[in-house]
Amino acid sequence: MHPDELQQYLREVQILLARSSVYAEDGETHEEIPALVLPAPEHAGTLRLQLDALHPADIAYILEALPLEERRYVWDLVKAERDGEILLEVSDAVRESLIETMAPHELKAAAETLDADELADLAPDLPPEIIRDVFQSLSSDEREQLRAAMSYPEDSVGALMDFDLVTVREDVTLEVVLRYLRRFDELPDHTDKLFVIDREEHLVGILTLESLLISDPEKLVSEVMRREPKVSFAPGDDASDAAQAFERYDLVSAPVVDRDNKVIGRLTVADVVDFIREASEAEILSHAGLREEEDVFAPVWDSVKNRWAWLAVNLVTAFVASRVIGAFEGSIERLVALAALMPIVAGIGGNSGNQTITMIVRAIAVGQIEESATKRLLKKELGVALFNGVIWGGLLGVLAWWLYSSASLGLVMTAAMTLNLLLAACAGVLIPMLRQRFGGDPAVGGSVMITALTDSGGFFIFLGLATLFLL
């Protein structure tokens, strides 16, 4: 569905929920929802029909945009057989709120509709007893697949791979392959190639659908297939590296093989896109100092727990900055212009530092830089900071001279701006590089630390220079 259409549908849902928000039949209320949010039956029927026509991802979007009570009501209107698909599509925080409202038998039924790789994604959010029951209901092959999927690290290819694929033998004709494919009700999503294996299930090549369709049906697979796959992965490979390979080679799918070169699954562009989106969201949250994804309609206490850590750090750094200012109270009293100008020095330094750290974190994420490049990056960013400091600091110095009729104040402004930009450049390079060196996430809390350094450092540099040369 087009984003504009989805937004329009969301507004329609909200209107239907609001129109009859005082209805409750015979004074009864839903198990989880107050009477004030129960729509009338005709509106509930309309909502149910509209939801039935939507893709699971679109329903997930609508659920995420609704407050908790309305979300739970709409969730109950969704057909039970679609619960599993939708739970996979919603964010982790919203999924938790939906699972809390579901009875054990509903959770089990939802989980049983999923494939092994999908169930592995949902398993961390399900109660252990539900996982045990679902595990017992699986076939032996599905159990092995589930065990394998859950055994791989979260950011590995094995955790993303799909077990639903099509394999063929190299010693059969294309006509046989076509007859084999016609037996499927539908091919696995994003099937652009078939994986060619030998009798021991070793990967020997790939057969693209294009080659299958345009080649003579009498030819053998071995005559048409590509002997060496362009790209293949091991389940332990890093998912970020796999995502870069998909982007670099414009892949739709790629085989995943074990140590013996046996095909155990495949990676699709859908899996990679989901991983990239989740990684990008996590990076944005980490950069802002948030510990995890947050439901915008979450209870107050849940949001407080998610945000308090870096707010506490920020409080400490703000206090340090205030004490730096306090140390120069006498200077500020004697030259009031300092109070008006010092936020400019700190603000520009913080902005410059965030630009630098964003570039460095992105380069680390896509594998463009290693630790050995730290000195070269530092030299380059210092050069950029020096240039910007002289140009923009000089401009601000001229403005300060014009406003306060003091050439000395203008020179102090230029020097302070330049020095603070140099400090911001050092911090912007070293903070993520050092965090990476010591095994941390380069993005976590970067903006908080940069702001702390450029505020305290900027105040100290500007007020210190002013005290030395103006008073």
Secondary structure layout:
Blueprint (H helix, E strand, L loop, with lengths): L2 H17 L21 H12 L3 H9 L3 H10 L5 H7 L2 H8 L4 H9 L3 H7 L5 H10 L2 H12 L5 H4 L6 E3 L4 H8 L11 E5 L5 E6 H6 L6 H4 L14 H11 L3 E5 L5 E6 H19 L12 H28 L1 H6 L2 H29 L8 H31 L2 H31 L8 H25 L1
Parallel strand pairs: 1-2
Antiparallel strand pairs: 2-3, 4-5
Name some characteristics of this structure.
5% strand; CBS-domain; single chain; 3 domains; globular; MgtE N-terminal fold; Tetracycline Repressor, domain 2; two-stranded antiparallel sheet; 471 residues; mainly alpha; three-stranded mixed sheet
Q: How would you explain this protein's 3D organization?
A:
By secondary structure, the protein is mainly α. It has 3 domains: 3-154, MgtE N-terminal domain-like (MgtE N-terminal fold, Alpha Horseshoe), CATH 1.25.60.10; 167-269, CBS-domain; 300-470, Tetracycline Repressor, domain 2 (Orthogonal Bundle). It contains 22 helices and 5 strands. The strands form 2 sheets. A 3-stranded mixed sheet has the order 1-2-3. Helix 12 (174-181) links the parallel strand 1 (167-169) and strand 2 (193-197). Helix 19 runs parallel beside helix 21 (407-437). 32% of the residues are buried.
